[in-house]
Specification:
The protein is an alpha/beta fold. It contains 15 helices and twelve strands. 48% of the residues lie in helices and 17% in strands. Helix 4 packs antiparallel against helix 5, helix 6 packs antiparallel against helix 8 and helix 13 runs antiparallel to helix 14. It starts with a strand and ends in a 6-residue tail after the last helix.
């Protein structure tokens, strides 16, 4: 981190304000080279931003944050100018002339993490807040950014350290290790840790759903009303609807907010035998979408006796391990059989029950005050912690020895450390920060 980095911190395109951010040991020199003199720390000052010949490039506000009292923990300079691509590029070019280099994606947040301004979970929450697809997701990300998620992980770590201390101490008394462990209540402490872990894992899973959302594929025969159902759920005419079979030839995607849960609905080509060539390609893409879905809504025309008869065979032929919910459409014209969801895309009947089904199918309980922004890797890490704690308890039950218990607890501790970055491989850090936007 001896380099000084620069990047545009605002989205590309035209806007009222564009921000160029500089961080590193040469930030002060860059500021003097462009402004003539540095502004007072943490005070916004109106200045002209000048090129190497002293000519103005732009005019705006300049802010200087000496390290370590800055976002990155380094000296930081921000230039708030006019939001035009040409002006912003000229400002960056001048910063490069003065000794900075272009920042990688996420490098400002990475430096904040490496300088102990944020832990890894908080740094990821920054990206989650920027990418939030709903108000509920944004609130959850802000809670994690404020440290609520990290605090719960640290509390688990503190409890785990206590247990490890008792077990490690018992190892020094090989003849009495299991008796000492039993006397110190390690089994009860592990049970309490597992209980806290289950509660945190539940909050993390809700946060993951809020952040990552789910993909729901709408499949079925041609003219079953798949596109009409997509339009009804989306609340507008996102898909073309006609009475001609095979109207949908490609996968049509539409994002909706379902009580805070981001859902991507995918309308697919009708599944049937012997389609013409273009439609066959649409069916191939439909089957590929089915394999990647989190949930499938298989739509059946309740007015078509042949479709009702063929339904069991068609469900078996889907050949997917993804959960499938059967939706009987057009129930405004015919009664639906039992065992599925009865809806009418035309009148909207049954849509509230369908929405409730979708939330239940993916395990979404709704955004609450305790929901935390989290990612799949956090869920996986907590799962490994739970496995290791269960293994430690099993060793205790079989009197396998303190050394085996201690090793399982060490592995559990390492898995917890991956969440906040206390124990995280360099490759994982690179992948995480590479997913951030430039300038953040």
């Amino acid at each position: 981190m001896t380099d000084t980095i620069v990047a545009i911190a605002t989205p590309p395109g035209r806007g009222g304000i564009g921000i160029v951010r500089v961080s590193g040991p040469a930030a002060a020199a860059v500021g003097r080279g462009m402004l003539g003199e540095l502004p007072p720390p943490r005070v916004a000052v109106a200045r002209h931003f000048r090129d190497g010949a002293g000519e103005p490039i732009d005019a705006g506000l300049a802010l200087y944050f000496p390290g370590p009292a800055s976002f990155t923990g380094e000296d930081v300079l921000e230039l708030h100018g006019h939001g035009g691509a040409v002006v912003q590029d000229l400002l960056v070019a001048r910063c490069l002339e003065l000794g900075a280099r272009p920042a990688r994606a996420g490098e400002f947040s990475e430096r904040a993490f490496l300088n102990d301004k944020l832990d890894l979970a908080q740094a990821e929450a920054i990206a989650d807040l920027i990418d939030a697809g709903s108000a509920a997701a944004a609130r959850a990300a802000l809670r994690s950014l404020d440290g609520e998620f990290s605090a719960r992980v640290h509390a688990l770590e503190a409890g785990l350290v206590e247990v490890r201390m008792h077990v490690e101490a018992a190892i020094d008394f090989a003849d009495e290790d299991l008796e000492l462990i039993a006397e110190s209540g390690v089994a009860k402490r592990l049970a309490a840790l597992e209980e806290s872990l289950v509660a945190l894992a539940a909050a993390v899973e809700q946060g993951r759903l809020l952040q990552e959302g789910c993909t729901v594929v709408i499949a079925g025969r041609p003219n079953a009303g798949k596109s009409s159902l997509l339009n009804a759920l989306a609340g507008h005419d996102a898909a073309i609807v006609t009475e001609i079979p095979g109207t949908t030839r490609d996968v049509l995607r539409e994002r909706i907010d379902l009580d805070g849960l981001p859902l991507e609905l995918q309308d697919t080509a009708g599944l049937r035998e012997d389609p013409e060539r273009v439609e066959a390609e649409g069916i191939r893409r439909a089957r590929a979408a089915l394999a990647r879905a989190d949930h499938v809504l298989y739509v059946v025309d309740a007015t078509d006796p042949q479709a009702l008869t063929a339904l069991p065979a068609e469900l078996e032929a889907l050949g997917t391990s993804v959960p499938v919910g059967v939706v009987y459409n057009k129930t405004d014209r015919a009664a639906a059989p039992s065992g599925g969801l009865a809806v009418s895309a035309l009148t909207g009947a049954g849509l509230p029950a369908l929405r409730a089904h979708l939330k239940a199918a993916v395990g979404y309980l709704g955004a609450s005050a305790g929901t935390l922004s989290a990612r799949r890797r956090h869920r996986d890490a907590l799962g490994r912690v739970r496995e290791r704690l269960a293994a430690a308890r099993a060793h205790l039950a079989t009197a396998a020895g303190a050394e085996l218990v201690a090793e399982e607890l060490r592995l559990a501790h390492d898995a917890l450390g991956e969440i906040t970055g206390r124990f995280t491989s360099e490759d994982l850090l690179t992948r995480i920060f590479a997913s951030f936007c430039i300038g953040k």
